[in-house]
Amino acid sequence: MKLSDCLFVLALLLSFLLLTSSRTHEDFLQCLTLHSEKDKPISNIIYTPSNSSYSSALNSYVRNTRFSTPSTPKPEVIVTPLGVSHIQETLYCAQKHRIQVRVRSGGHDYEGLSFVSPKPFVILDMINLRNISIDVENNTAWVQSGATLGELYYWIANKSRTLGFPAGVCQTIGVGGHFSGGGYGTLLRKYGLAADNVLDAHLIDVKGRFLDRKSMGEDLFWAIGGGGGASFGVIVSWKIKLVPVPANVTVFTVRKGLEQNATKILHRWQYVAPNIDRDLFIRVILTGSGSVQYGNRSVQASFNSIYLGGKDKLIPLMQKSFPELGLVSEDCTEMSWIQSILYFAGFQNGQSLDVLLNRSLTINSYKAKSDYVRQPILEAALEGIWPSFFEKEAQSSVIILNPYGGRMSEISESAIPFPHRAGNIYKIQYLVYWSEEGTAATESHVSWIRRLYAYMAPYVSNSPREAYINYRDLDIGENNEGNTSYRQASIWGTKYFKNNFKRLVFVKTAIDPSNFFRNEQSIPPLSF
After folding, report:
1. What is the DSSP string of 155-187?
2. Of residues 154, 471, 486, 496, which has the active-site annotation?
3. Would you say 107 and 62 are in contact if contact means Cβ atoms under 8 Å apart?
4. 143 CB-near residues (< 8 Å, 6+ apart)
5. Which 8-state DSSP code applies to residue 507?
6. Long-range contacts of range 489-497, CB-CB < 8 Å, 24 or more positions apart?
7. pLDDT at 292
8. First and final C-alpha spacing in the chain
9. Hey, which end of the chain has fewer CB within 10 Å, N or C?
10. Contact predicate 28/123, CB 8 Å
11. Cβ contact 101:231 at 8 Å
């Protein structure tokens, strides 16, 4: 075939694909209009590329500019439901016209899977579903999936100074994705994960049924609380158990450079942090200091902590268990639990709680990875990490070490899909950020974090090398665009869920055998 003929065929194929995509888009919109309730018209909450507000609706909750480029696939339609009927109508029409649905609550998916798809797709954006109802008398709350953690914390504090919830430290994270992946924060050694404290949920399944815990059954309820809710349906809201916290807690951050024995202190931390009193949480934030450009780069270890009590008890505890850190009373600040939320989020002391209601976030491009550590890493191996911080790509990089133990070691690996329990002494999160545009910058920084990840392989969990589902990482494996076999999905699935992956597949097979709810790392049904 001549080149001119090939080009002609290609042009015809592209025209056909564009026409098909346009027709699918129009048919989907027409379906929504026809099936929406008269007193709840759906047209007011739909955004299409022809709408002047489309870009704003799309980009307002894109938290990673790596997935906000001209070549990034864009949704055919964005639906921002006001209630259950709008979700049901969207799911019905999407199935009828064979268009994928991606559900977004806060937009923090590390690989952008809540708002990007290689196939024609619709975003079901939960931004309007963020109602929060606090029941102080029964120590419970109902929270819709579109709410942020900041909004949840704000309204808990509005009702009580001595109630809290064990979820994350970033106030802009959406509740929906956070809870469904497990979710953790500074209270995990005392109370476990967010998902460990979920009592009930409301979910819309592939058939459009509105289900609570009783009607969905214990298998499905188990699956959505740590197995990634996007595989099983649209989770509308969660009922959670609020936990007691003291009227005052104590926080501190002690920073140590390499010249201040940071390596030795960090090595000792590995033995102390997972075994100390469960009222004490001490994480370590490793960052570079100085400038790569001017050759004065070093490494700083920040020991960032909360104690559920006063410093009169904290200081003796630290002197006995972790004297190497050299904590003194002047390092410590007593405050309410809600103020500690602001402290860990990086706000200045005395900042108004209203900042927790701010859903905006300064964003850059970033890539993340995770690991679990089961045995303390030797000092020599820790020293092998430091040169990574001296490379030019590491100017804005961070490694965060979160201790386990306490309540985390008491909960069974199979209690919820999250399996990383007894035997893990801490979890590692690796992050690298960059502001430069273009594929070269992206490839350079992603290569940096992959090299660091490769270096860490001998010192972390293995068979499988465990990872945290909420720190999504497509490097560890992904599904085919079409059908994905159990064997292929288990490559990444066992790293996130270990033996729980098998049960998740059985639940998926029962609730969504056609695999309508799918993405690059969704649980596949057995038929696939």
Report:
1. HHHHH-SSEE----S-TT-BHHHHHHT----TT
2. 471
3. yes
4. 131, 132, 133, 152, 175, 237, 238, 240
5. H
6. 489/523, 489/524, 492/467, 492/521, 493/523, 494/464, 495/464, 495/465, 495/466, 495/467, 496/228, 496/466, 496/467, 496/468, 496/469, 496/521, 497/227, 497/417, 497/418, 497/419, 497/469
7. 64
8. 37
9. N
10. no
11. no
- Average pLDDT estimate for 60-85: 95
Among residues 310, 268, 315, 278, the alpha carbon closest in space to that of 186 is found at: 278
DSSP letters, 328-387, are -GGGEEEE-HHHHHHHHTTPPTT--GGGGG-------EEEEEEEEESSPPPHHHHHTTGG
Structure tokens at 215: 């009607």
Judging by beta carbons within 10 Å of its beta carbon (0-12, 13-18, 19+), is residue 223 exposed, middle or buried?
buried
What digits encode the pLDDT tens for the residues 180-209?
999 999 999 999 999 999 999 999 999 999
Residues 112, 229 contacting (CB under 8 angstroms): no
Nearest CA to 66 out of 122, 103, 114, 111 is that of: 111
* Residue recorded with tokens 């955004």: 47
Q: pLDDT class for 528, splitting at 50, 70, 90?
A: low
Amino acid letter, 138 = N
Q: Is the peptide bond before 70 cis (omega within 30 degrees of 0)?
A: no
pLDDT of residue 8: 47
Helix or strand (DSSP H, E) at 315:
helix 311-321
The single residue listed with the structure tokens 């992956």 is 501
Structure-token pair, residue 207 = 């058939």
Give the type of residue at 1: M
Please state the φ and ψ torsions of residue 318, each to the nearest 5 degrees.
Answer: -70, -40
Known catalytic residue: 471? yes
pLDDT at 11: 45
Nearest CA among 121, 215, 126, 139 for reference residue 179? 126
Average pLDDT, the chain: 93
Burial of 158 (0-12, 13-18, 19+ CB in 10 A): exposed
Strand-pair partners of 402: 427
Say whether pLDDT at 362 is over 90. Answer: no
> For residue 319, what is the enclosing H or E element?
helix 311-321
According to the model, what pLDDT value does residue 36 have? 81
* C-alpha–C-alpha distance, residues 125 and 253, integer Å: 37
Separation between Cα atoms, residue 166 and residue 152, nearest integer Å: 11
Match 């430069």 to its residue by tokens. 436
Are 322 and 268 in contact by the 8 Å Cβ rule? The answer is yes
